[in-house]
Amino acid sequence: MNALLLLSLCGLVVGAWAQCQCSYMKWAKCDETPCQCTLAVGEAVNQPINCSALVPKCYLMKAEMYRAKKGLSTRSGGKPTEHAFVDNDGIYDPECDNNGNFKAKQCNNTNECWCVNSAGVRRTDKGAKEDINCNELVDTYWVRLELKHNVTSTPLDTAQLKTAIGQAIQSRYGLSASFINNTQYDPDARLIMVDVVKPIGNKNVDLSRVAYYMEKDVKVLPLFTDGKKFQPTVSGQPLNFENIVVYYVDEKPPTFSMKRLTGGIIAVIVVVVVAIAAGLLVLFFAKRKQRAQYEKTQHREMDEMQQSLS
Ligand SMILES: *[C@@H]1O[C@H](CO)[C@@H](O)[C@H](O)[C@H]1NC(C)=O
Ligand SMILES: *[C@@H]1O[C@H](CO)[C@@H](O)[C@H](O)[C@H]1NC(C)=O
Ligand SMILES: *[C@@H]1O[C@H](CO)[C@@H](O)[C@H](O)[C@H]1NC(C)=O
Ligand SMILES: *[C@@H]1O[C@H](CO)[C@@H](O)[C@H](O)[C@H]1NC(C)=O
Fold first, then answer.
1. Are 41 and 59 in contact (CB under 8 A)?
2. pLDDT computed for residue 26 by the predictor
3. What is the pTM of this model?
């Protein structure tokens, strides 16, 4: 009788424990009654989080920096518009506001600062703390997710692929498929390009969380507690991914200076320089040929003159 009571008590405790866990964040620690989960983002700094939604990227980055410092885990490792940019900086220790949004100005605990967008990605040059002014947090309203899938045994049907990707994003990240503006597929490159766009001015949807969770899913390990992979099924075939590139488009273009030449611009400059060099070369040889002909005709005329003279 007592054993039965104990068993059911144990069951209750286990049940309560199992219920209070954070499915969206595997690193979270949870306390029951009432169920509240927190994420360690600094020495004795436990950020309460809402486990019914994706965790704000700013908190995730703080947690990652903290964990890297503690040796717990580290981050391993076509543009939609001319203003789109990728995050080449990698991780830093961000400052978040009370809602988990990035503060517009970030310094990574140093005296060198820069301005970020709502995804926490740098959108200005870096500068001394006192020189950098970030008047507002500019919203990222469009992210392009460029996914490269692994080799499949049979070719994928484009229409089914698009549906599967939309469904996977909706069920896994809780983002309505209505935000997926456009999906394109290049079977030869194995590239799937997903444009996620929200109406300009809509501050309720945070595209950076979806992009960050997906980046983790593809590049490192899922942040979800259940550890399941991001693996859409297309015509019964599970799809794996080997890379993802995220482009960010903000409501206002970024203000990087020209010293940050992008690969594209460098390529264009190289092509132009090569073209000019080729042009000069052609001109040079044309001139030489002309001169040679001129000299030849002159010689012939001279010969004729000499002949007529003699
Ligand atoms: C937690 O997130 C859910 C889903 O977005 C939302 O409905 C709920 O209001 C949030 N709870 C709190 C306390 O913010
Ligand atoms: C931020 O600082 C850490 C060292 O504390 C460094 O490892 C990291 O690369 C820095 N990140 C950026 C974006 O400067
Ligand atoms: C997908 O491809 C990458 C790189 O080719 C490989 O490292 C990875 O193991 C593959 N994943 C699966 C699940 O086959
Ligand atoms: C999203 O799609 C609509 C209609 O297809 C199009 O008019 C709009 O330009 C698209 N927005 C972006 C940012 O691509």
1. yes
2. 85
3. 0.72
Q: Which amino acid is at 306?
A: Q
Rounded to an integer, what distance in angstroms lies between the CA atom of residue 198 and that of residue 140?
9
Span from the CA of 77 to the centroid of ligand 2 (angstroms): 14
pLDDT of residue 269: 61
The token pair at 176 is 């309505």
- Distance (angstroms) between ligand 1 centre and the Cα of 122 equals 28
Q: Say which ligand is closest to the CA of 190.
A: 3
Q: How far apart are CA 259 and CA 256, in angstroms?
A: 8
Which uninterrupted H or E stretch holds 263? helix 263-309
Structure tokens at 161: 């692929």
Q: Is the CB of 102 under 6 A from ligand 2?
A: no
- Going from the Cα of 158 to the center of ligand 1, the distance in angstroms, rounded, reads 35
Q: What is the CA(220)–ligand 3 centre distance, in A? A: 12
> CA nearest 107: which of 122, 86, 85, 87?
122
Q: Is 163 in the pocket of ligand 2 (CB under 6 A)?
A: no
Residue 196 sits at φ, ψ, to 5 deg, of -110, 115
Cα 15 to Cα 19: distance, rounded to the nearest angstrom = 6
